[in-house]
Design brief:
The chain is α/β, with parallel strands linked by helices. It has one domain: TIM Barrel (Alpha-Beta Barrel). Helices cover 39% and strands 15% of the residues. The structure holds 6-O-phosphono-beta-D-glucopyranose.
Length: 471
């Protein structure tokens, strides 16, 4: 069977579905956060979000009309298993069957993520990602999804961004359960990776079920200079930002120099010897890369470890350094860099560099750019959204991706984040990423932005190229 380059867009369950208490769905940590936490600074919830649960047919029609041939979305664990494990909710199962069938009917290939951060609340109450039982519960949930949808879905992702999500949950503390504790963070990061490996083990029991990967928030690390100290800092940052996820999923082991360094500051006894076989047999078929920005690194100067974040949407709201890892490195803002209102540096070359690095390290492994996009303030003007900033961002990044492809990286698909406007976690709804505008004030009306048409025309004009992929 021939393979086409996939041009699509992406969303995640909690960020867009809404229907938080419908058809037997259980609660996730984000329901608890958005309803009750004083850290929910924008005071909004995902209760309705983009109402995708009820409008998915319209959304899929727009994908098709927009020339897209793949849709990356996630399954809400609490819809399938309201308590995280145990009783299965048939209505939840049926919903994703309807969604997948609709995609296939429209010639759109589903790319399914099993976990995009909506951890069932009952599991969090028993320790969440700090408890190994969660990893086993995840594997059981994954098995249910494989057996339900495996004959229809050929692209699977275990976990979305283990690095970014866990450091937000346990390092920066801006995501539930809102903890700031390095020791707990590292343990949760390890158990999340274990969960991914256990799910892969389940996956391998099925045949003709396609491929499975992980989605990683790639952050290529650049030093402020070339000194020995900076080189050490860059290596440590690269270990914590990238290798912690890519090494176990590609080679089945964690980087030894990272473990040696971490062991100076943290107790790593939770990394059980008997789990090493699970990691070794849990390597993946492809890498999903979410590329947003890079990391600018200098050597450690002083102070305790911390991570700064800007969820305010006011430029320069975070101090320098952005992050300190005691004894290892500091991450800073490049004074000459270009930043969004949420202090994200726009750095298209990082797309090329990260893809080249993956090729150097892991050879021919298939790569999907599973997310790439920019969050902006946007308003409807005369019924239109002229998002030239997004078009500029996407075209520059796609160009860098294609350059990497020409240079040999095995890139098989690209997904814009996001398909339509949605809940941007702690940033709420004012930070918009969609190709389609959602009028949250007017019954969640969908209005394609200028970028939607730009992307459609871009795909159209490139459709007869085969991008080096067998047709
Ligand atoms: C990625 C996530 O980290 O970035 C998405 O996979 C997220 O879920 C996106 O929405 C943009 O981040 P944010 O915080 O600006 O919404």
């Amino acid at each position: 069977m021939g393979k086409k380059f996939l041009w699509g867009s992406a969303t995640a369950s909690y960020q867009c579905e809404g229907a938080w208490n419908e058809d037997g769905r259980g609660l996730s940590i984000w329901d608890e956060f958005s309803h009750h936490s004083d850290k929910n600074i924008n005071n909004v919830t995902g209760d309705i979000a983009s109402n995708h649960y009820h409008q998915f047919e319209e959304d899929i029609r727009m994908m098709k009309e927009g020339g897209q041939n793949s849709y990356r979305f996630s399954i809400a664990w609490p819809r399938i298993l309201p308590k995280g494990k145990g009783d299965v909710n048939q209505k939840g199962i049926d919903f994703y069957h309807r969604m997948i069938d609709c995609l296939l009917k429209n010639g759109i290939e589903p790319n399914v993520t099993l976990y995009h951060w909506d951890l069932p609340l009952p599991l969090q109450e028993k320790g969440g990602w700090e408890n190994e039982e969660t990893a086993y519960a995840f594997a059981e949930y994954a098995r249910i999804c494989f057996s339900e949808y495996g004959d229809k879905v050929k692209l699977w992702v275990t976990i979305n961004e283990p690095h970014y999500s866990i450091t937000s949950m346990y390092g920066a503390g801006n995501y539930p359960p809102n903890v700031k504790d390095g020791q707990r963070c590292i343990k949760a990061a390890y158990i999340t990776m274990l969960a991914s490996a256990l799910a892969v083990k389940e996956f391998r029991k099925f045949s003709n079920i396609g491929q499975i990967g992980i989605v990683h928030d790639a952050s290529p690390c650049y030093g402020v200079d070339d000194s020995k100290e900076t080189q050490f800092a860059v290596r440590m940052a690269d270990n914590l930002f990238n290798n912690w996820v890519l090494e176990p999923t590609m080679r089945g082991v964690f980087p030894q120099d990272m473990l040696d360094e971490l062991a100076k500051y943290y107790d790593l006894s939770f990394m059980k010897k008997e789990n090493s076989e699970i990691f070794k047999s849990g390597t993946l078929d492809f890498i999903g890369i979410n590329y947003y920005s890079r990391s600018f690194i200098r050597s450690y100067t002083e102070g305790e470890s911390y991570i700064g974040v800007n969820n305010t949407g006011i430029k320069s709201a975070v101090d320098q350094p952005l992050m300190v890892m005691k004894g290892m490195f500091e991450q800073i803002k490049d004074p000459g860099g270009e930043f969004t209102d949420w202090d994200m540096e726009i750095y298209p070359q990082g797309m090329y560099d990260t893809l080249r690095q993956i090729r150097q390290r892991y050879g021919d492994v298939p790569i999907y750019i599973t997310e790439n996009g920019v969050g902006l303030y946007e308003k409807l003007k005369d019924g239109r959204v002229e998002d030239d900033g997004r078009i500029d961002f996407l075209s520059k990044h796609i160009k860098e991706m294609l350059r990497a492809k020409e240079d040999g990286a095995n890139i098989c698909g690209y997904y814009v984040w996001s398909t339509f406007d949605l809940y941007s976690w702690v940033n709420g709804y004012k930070k918009r990423y969609g190709l389609v505008y959602v009028d949250f004030e007017d019954d969640n009306r969908r209005i394609p932005k200028k970028s939607y048409y730009w992307y459609r025309d871009f795909i159209r004009s490139n459709n007869n190229k085969n991008w080096g992929i067998e047709q």
